[in-house]
Design a protein that fits this description.
7 helices; three-stranded antiparallel β-sheet; alpha/beta; 21% strand; 215 residues
């Protein structure tokens, strides 16, 4: 009838609309990888296929794996800067349904890859859950995080605390002796990091955004 929607079309559209892009962010050591691995377990426990991704630049564990500080881990697919999520997942669908993508250290995504992940949701109808930090050791935003914050359907903070007891939002880089590092490349996998509140982080002292109070 004119003006009425076919019920099958309505159901198909509702399923399509369920596929959304999520960005779970926090400061370092807040349990992002643990949360990701728990999500993967929940999918697989229900017989659903979840694809796990980790950056190729982190080679400390040898084979690509996502590790949690509490000791659990899972095999993952390594992605470099040239990896095409949309094409890879579309081809993977030919072998069987894919129910979810889970991306660890999502701050290392390129802007093009974040765009690809939006298309995984919008054209392939697969939800994508990304986990990462927003800013580096000088308070500068990562490219991947910047575009996830701009384009994600859902943005969720995973909270952790600073040694001061306040909520931690920044990531300080430390050397092997535990001293603060304020110079160097944005990406350096080998360093240790400490989550800090913005006040403890002293953003005005380390940020490349040059400004000082007058007087």
């Amino acid at each position: 009838m004119c003006g009425e929607q076919h019920p099958l079309r309505t159901v198909a559209r509702e399923v399509h609309d369920m596929a959304q892009l999520y960005f779970y962010y926090s400061a370092m050591n807040a349990g992002k990888s643990t949360t990701l691995l728990q999500s993967a377990h929940n999918y697989r426990e229900r017989g659903m296929e979840a694809l796990l991704y980790t950056p190729a630049i982190d080679t400390r564990a040898g084979d690509p794996r996502i590790h949690s500080r509490i000791g659990i881990s899972a095999a993952a697919i390594a992605f470099g800067t040239e990896y095409d999520f949309f094409t890879a997942v579309r081809e993977r669908q030919q072998a069987g349904p894919v129910h979810c993508l889970l991306v660890d250290e999502a701050q290392f995504l390129t802007p093009q890859q974040v765009l690809q992940l939006t298309l995984v949701c919008d054209r392939l109808s697969i939800p994508v859950l990304c986990y990462g930090i927003r800013t580096d050791f000088r308070g500068e935003p990562f490219e991947g995080s910047k575009y996830l914050l701009a384009w994600a359907d859902n943005i969720v903070e995973i909270k952790t605390i600073c040694r001061s007891g306040k909520k931690a939002t920044m990531n300080a880089r430390l050397d092997e002796q535990g001293n603060r590092v304020t110079e160097g490349a944005q990406i350096d996998i080998g360093h240790h990091y400490e989550a800090m509140s913005r006040r403890e982080f002293r953003l005005d002292e380390v940020s490349p955004v040059a400004w000082r109070p007058r007087g």
